[in-house]
Amino acid sequence: MADFHQNGHVATLHDLRRVNPETMERELEQFAETRKITLILPSLYSELQGEALGKIIDELSSAKFINRIVIGLDRANEAEYRHAKEFFSRLPQEHVVLWNDGPRLKDVDLRLAEMGLSPIEPGKGRNVWFCIGHTLSRGDSDIVALHDCDIVTYTKEMLVKLLYPVANPSFPYLLSKGFYPRIADGKFNGRVSRLLVTPILIALSKVIGERDYLDYLSAFRYPLAGEFAMRTSILSDMRIPSDWGLEIGVLSEAWRNLAPKTTCQVEISDAYDHKHQPLSEEDASTGLSRMSIDICKALYRKLAADGTVFTMETFRSLKATYYRLALDLIENYYNDAIMNGLHVDRHAAEKSVELFASNIMEAGEIFLENPMETPFIPNWSRVHAADQDLMRVMSESIMQDNEDYQP
Q: Strands, E, within 46-91: which ranges?
């Protein structure tokens, strides 16, 4: 991964293995004296029992550059919330745990629903959205970082590299996105990015013609990476998708709202692994099957908003073009793996491509049946305009939960 190639669309910041990680961390600590950093961790309660989160907390415990950690906790009852507070209590930084299933935040959600502003469905997008709202209500963060809680190869160095571009005052970046190779256990991972996103972006350019938006997305080395760092000033106007198109949705919002030179991607690791979703061929409502449909719909919606007209004939051509390109890429990945002593299961890869090709059509049919579907959660600027007291009430509810429910 260590090269110096620039694609001309998004600044790519590489790790050329020339800087001591401790040196970069000390610089980040200096930047953080005047640019306060908040880290958001969206977590399921079940992840507290996993192998990754404990190590993540151990790594974060020595991260002096973090001012506050906001943990969004999903699928937890009262006893589990109390246990989560104990689990995170070893963090030396100021931290707060949002009990998303607790009565106080449910009351806040009901208040949002009465205004037609409540997130449509539960999930990571909703979790992150509430964490952002709490962070904005505190009014003392300059930078917000976000990453998942299932990264089994996590190191503090990853977060340092992710934050550095937006924390360094001599850099112009308002948003940085991490990238890395998805390899673990002697094989290539990252099936959706390799076998769906890369070929469908190429196929879309062939079928509907070149678009600046497609060039922009294609410039990201790993567009589905869940690691972002952003200047807090851009969050109020950012719409968070509620479905599984979160990562593509955030990049799309950056393309819509920010100047190109203010977005970058940064190499944060050369070894990355996390929890793997099942392909879920038999159930399109879960796993990678659901993810692939949501990603396709997110692409179609964004292109339609930019003036592209879709028909079933378009989607049929897209499916055929995608399928041929994806099969060719399988060959490329296989050869790449052989040269690096890794394994690619070509049969499993072709099965994935067949499923994704089918889901390209499925997503197209859903889109044409309901082209006005908007799974985006309203941004916090709109919420504040509708109810100027809600963010205060929400944050007071969160802080009261943390005081009342002790381990």
A: 68-74
